[in-house]
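Thread: Newbie trying to understand structure tokens

Hi all, I'm a second-year student working on a class project, and my supervisor (Dr. K.) asked me to get a predicted structure for one chain before our next meeting. I've only ever worked with sequences, so writing a 3D structure as a token string is new to me. If someone could post the tokens and maybe explain what I'm looking at, I'd be very grateful. Here's the chain:
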Amino acid sequence: MTSPRILFYCHNAIGLGHVIRSLRIADAALHDGARCAIVTGCRSLPSLDVDSRIDVEILPPVRIDDAGRPVALLDDVPDIIAVRSRRIADFISRWRPHAVVVDHHPFGLGGELVGSLDTNADARFILGIPYVEALPVGPFRNPQLRAALARYTEILDYSDDGASASVALIPSAVITRVGVVCRPPLPPLPTDVRRVVALAGGGQAAADLYRIVIDAMRNLPDWHLRLVVGPFGDAHAVETLARERGDVEVWNRGTAEEAVRDATVVVSRCGYNTAYALVQSALPIVFLPQRLPADDQIARAGRLSELPKIWNLDTRDPDVSAQLARVLHDADLTPVARTLPFAIDGAHAAAREIVRMIVDKRPSGP
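---
Reply by user tm_fold:
Sure, no problem. This is what the structure looks like when written as tokens:
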């Protein structure tokens, strides 16, 4: 047959996790001889390293309003989801993928994928589940939604704990656990200073996290500190915090992997991409997961803190800065080699599985 054609759909409204995960699988699929495309409304896609061989369809951007609904970024399109839905369906019709890989949300943002699931009979739809939090909960009375779910015959499990094995969302789907989709850490750089590197993932509420770090380090004047703003962070707010003490670097650009190469210890949120990059290193880690409704960070931090020299602190605790200070002052912060209880080659395993599904034209599994 001709080269497998794989389209990746990412429902980003905030953050970069879904796009980054999809791009990593697409890169692996390109290596296996596939043609790849991605359809997303991610506004930060130009800042990412997107392989020029990947076809890109950018949807009109949205933001999430105070009620949690996706709306047009500038309030200039009254039904932005309908506009994006038509764009997705038109792109699928033009590009004609053999498989559409949907990250996390089977219906898409605001249900924008339902029309494509209903009308594109030739494409095979595959659902990738990195975690179970915020998945839609059935059973659904709406026959269109039931029909849309029925289009998924395979689930790829990208989690660290076999999360999709308990997902009753699509009982008839065959589940393949491929492992966590992440990159290996960069080699550490030699340093003769003690340095805390603080990470806030995409940067939402970065200043709230960094306030805790600044307060915890008030009695540690000999330590250096690096704050990474993140693509969605408020650089001005972070820079204002940084002026409260000496020996603070603020990185407006740069990846987590780059930022921690000369760290002594890392203080971080616990988003998917950042967390799995960090635990592969030998660095001591303090997770302060973001606590939002149906957020995946809390459960992930709980699981990962069972590994050596990983602490999990609750940002709601009024004593959290003092707790962090005690870790920095009293804990053994020498590097530690960790044996991870989950596979970390999910990008290549997922790409191979998707190509096999296309070539075999049969469901995966035993």
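A couple of things are worth pointing out once you decode it. The radius of gyration is 21 Å. The longest helix spans residues 80-95. Feel free to ask follow-ups in this thread.
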